[in-house]
C-alpha cells in the first residue's frame, strides 16, 4: 500500500542510535522505516533475561509443584512469546505503537480506558523494577565489601539506577535497540556462568507433599502456577509489543517477527524461570523470603556470585528500558499532546517518587504493589484478547491516518468515538477474570468453590472476552480499503 507523507513530517522523523528520537505515537513514514526482524531477538532476550523470571520460577516450587511439573509450566510460558510475536507483527502494518493501534478496536475515545490501565501497569512495573535494581546494586556492594546500608548508599544506588534506567528511553527507540543488542551478550554470558554453577547442586527429585500445595491438588496448583507465569510473560509484555517493531518496513513478513520474538523472549524466559525452579530445590526458603538476591548469591559457588549479581542489575535495567519507553507511549495514547521524551521524563519523576517512598518510608510496599500489579491481568488480559481478535477480523489491515486522527472524521470514530461492542466485551471479560482470580489481594469465591483454588484469570481473559467480542464485533474490515498515511504525533 502506498504511503502519503507530507515533506515536513517525513523530515521531522529521526530515529538514530544515541540521537534524540523525535517521533512519538504518530505514524512512521515508509521512507523512515528501517531495521530487520532479528533485532527484536535482542530486544526481547535482554528484557526477559531478568531476575523477575528467577523469582517467578522459584514461586512454582513454593506453590507445591515438583521440578518437572514446574518445568512444564516454564515451557508453556516460553511458548507464549510466539503469541506475543503476533502482536509485534501489528507494528509494521499500522506503523505506530500498540496502544495507538488499539484505537482500531476501541475507538478514538474508548481506547483511553485501556491506554490508562496500560500506562498505570507500565509505571507500576517501572517503579517496582527500579526498587529491585537499587536493592540489587546494594547487594552487589555488600558482596564486594562496599557500604550497603543506610541512607547514603541507598541514595547513591538510586541515583545510579535513575541514570542507567532513563538515559536510554529518553533518547528513544534506536538507542534502546542498540543497547539491548550489546547488553544481551553480557547477560547471556552471565546466565551461562550461573547455570553451570547451579546445576551440580540441583535436587532433581524435589517434590513437596500434596498437603503443602497452594491449591486443592496437583492440577489446580498447576493452573495457578501457569496463570502466574503467563502474567509475567505474555500478559506482562503484550501492551508493549508493537512499540519496538513499528519502524520495520511495512512488508516485513509476520512469521519472521514471530520467530525473532519467540526465540528471544522464549529462550530467555525458559532459562530464567528454569533457573528459578532449580534454585528453589536447594536455596533456603526463609533466606530467600528475607533477601532473595543475597540468598542466591550465597547459595551458589563464590566464583559465580559476581556474574549473578551483575546479571540481576543489568537485567533489571534492560527490562526497565522497555517499561520506561512504553509507559510514555501509553501516556501519549491517552490523547495527551506532549513530546515523547517529556512523557518519559514525567513517568520517570512519578516512578522516582514511588521508589523513594518504597525505599525509605514503607516496609512492605513493593510486595503489596507487586500483588496489585498481578491483579492488572484482569484488565490487560481482556484488552489483549480484543486486540488480537480485532486484528484477525480485519486481516491485519489498518487505516493508519485514522489511528492518529481524534475527530469524527476518523474511520475509528464508531459512535461518539467509542466502539461500544468492544467496551461491552471488555467489561464482560474483566468481570470473568476478576471472578476467577486467586491472588494475594483477592481470592474469588468461585475460585475456591468451583475451581479447587486455581487462578484462571490467564485463561478466562482470552476465552470469555475473545468469544464475546468475536460474536459482537462487526465483520467488515474496518480500515481495509484505506491507504496508509503517515502523520506525526
UniProtKB/TrEMBL annotation:
GO MF annotations, alphabetized: transmembrane transporter activity
InterPro entries to which the protein is assigned, alphabetical: Pur-cyt_permease, Pur-cyt_permease_Fcy2/21/22
Subcellular location: Membrane
Organism of provenance: Alicyclobacillus hesperidum
Transmembrane segments: 40-60, 72-92, 113-138, 150-171, 183-202, 222-242, 262-282, 302-322, 342-362, 368-389, 422-443, 449-472
Superkingdom to which the source organism belongs: Bacteria
Key word Transmembrane present: yes
Family, per entry: Belongs to the purine-cytosine permease (2.A.39) family.
Keywords of this entry: Membrane, Transmembrane, Transmembrane helix, Transport
Identification of the protein by name: Allantoin permease
Membrane topology, from the record: Multi-pass membrane protein
Gene Ontology CC: plasma membrane
PANTHER family in the cross-refs: PURINE-CYTOSINE PERMEASE FCY2-RELATED
Amino acid at each position: 500500500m502506498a504511503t502519503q507523507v507530507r515533506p515536513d513530517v517525513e523530515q521531522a522523523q529521526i530515529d538514530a542510535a544515541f540521537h534524540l528520537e523525535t517521533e512519538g505515537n504518530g505514524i512512521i513514514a515508509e521512507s523512515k522505516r528501517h531495521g530487520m526482524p532479528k533485532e527484536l531477538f535482542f530486544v526481547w532476550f535482554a528484557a526477559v533475561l531478568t531476575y523477575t523470571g528467577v523469582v517467578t520460577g522459584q514461586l512454582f516450587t513454593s506453590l507445591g509443584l515438583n521440578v518437572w511439573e514446574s518445568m512444564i509450566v516454564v515451557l508453556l510460558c516460553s511458548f507464549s512469546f510466539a503469541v506475543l510475536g503476533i502482536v509485534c507483527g501489528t507494528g509494521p502494518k499500522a506503523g505506530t505503537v500498540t496502544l495507538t493501534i488499539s484505537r482500531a478496536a476501541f475507538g478514538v475515545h474508548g481506547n483511553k480506558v485501556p491506554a490508562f490501565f496500560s500506562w498505570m501497569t507500565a509505571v507500576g512495573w517501572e517503579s517496582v523494577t527500579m526498587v529491585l535494581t537499587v536493592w540489587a546494586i546494594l547487594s552487589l556492594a555488600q558482596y564486594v565489601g562496599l557500604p550497603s546500608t543506610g541512607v547514603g548508599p541507598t541514595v547513591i544506588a538510586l541515583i545510579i539506577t535513575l541514570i542507567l534506567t532513563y538515559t536510554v528511553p529518553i533518547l528513544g527507540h534506536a538507542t534502546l535497540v542498540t543497547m539491548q543488542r550489546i547488553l544481551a551478550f553480557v547477560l547471556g554470558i552471565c546466565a551461562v556462568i550461573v547455570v553451570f554453577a547451579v546445576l551440580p547442586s540441583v535436587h532433581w527429585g524435589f517434590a513437596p507433599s500434596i498437603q503443602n500445595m497452594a491449591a486443592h491438588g496437583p492440577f489446580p496448583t498447576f493452573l495457578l502456577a501457569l496463570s502466574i507465569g503467563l502474567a509475567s510473560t505474555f500478559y506482562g509484555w503484550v501492551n508493549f509489543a508493537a512499540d519496538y517493531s513499528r519502524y520495520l518496513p511495512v512488508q516485513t513478513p509476520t512469521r519472521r517477527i514471530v520467530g525473532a520474538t519467540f526465540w528471544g523472549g522464549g529462550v530467555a524466559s525458559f532459562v530464567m524461570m528454569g533457573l528459578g525452579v532449580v534454585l528453589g530445590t536447594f536455596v533456603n526458603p526463609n533466606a530467600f523470603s528475607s533477601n532473595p538476591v543475597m540468598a542466591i548469591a550465597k547459595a551458589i559457588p563464590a566464583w559465580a556470585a559476581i556474574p549473578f549479581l551483575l546479571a540481576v542489575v543489568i537485567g533489571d535495567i534492560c527490562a526497565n528500558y522497555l517499561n520506561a519507553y512504553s509507559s510514555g507511549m501509553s501516556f501519549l495514547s491517552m490523547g495527551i499532546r506532549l513530546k515523547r521524551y517529556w512523557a518519559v521524563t514525567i513517568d520517570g519523576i512519578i516512578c522516582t517518587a514511588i521508589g523513594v517512598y518504597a525505599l525509605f518510608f514503607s516496609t512492605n510496599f513493593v510486595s503489596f504493589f507487586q500483588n496489585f500489579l498481578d491483579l492488572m491481568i484482569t484488565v490487560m488480559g481482556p484488552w489483549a484478547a480484543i486486540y488480537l481478535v480485532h486484528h484477525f477480523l480485519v486481516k491485519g489491515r489498518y487505516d493508519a491516518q485514522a489511528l492518529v486522527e481524534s475527530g469524527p472524521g476518523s474511520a475509528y470514530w464508531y459512535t461518539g468515538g467509542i466502539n461500544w461492542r468492544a467496551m461491552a466485551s471488555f467489561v464482560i471479560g474483566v468481570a470473568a477474570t476478576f471472578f476467577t482470580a486467586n491472588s494475594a489481594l483477592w481470592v474469588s469465591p468461585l475460585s475456591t468453590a468451583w475451581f479447587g483454588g486455581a487462578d484462571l484469570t490467564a485463561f478466562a481473559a482470552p476465552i470469555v472476552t475473545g468469544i464475546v467480542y468475536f460474536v459482537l464485533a462487526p465483520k467488515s474490515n474496518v480500515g481495509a480499503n484505506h491507504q496508509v498515511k503517515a502523520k506525526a504525533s
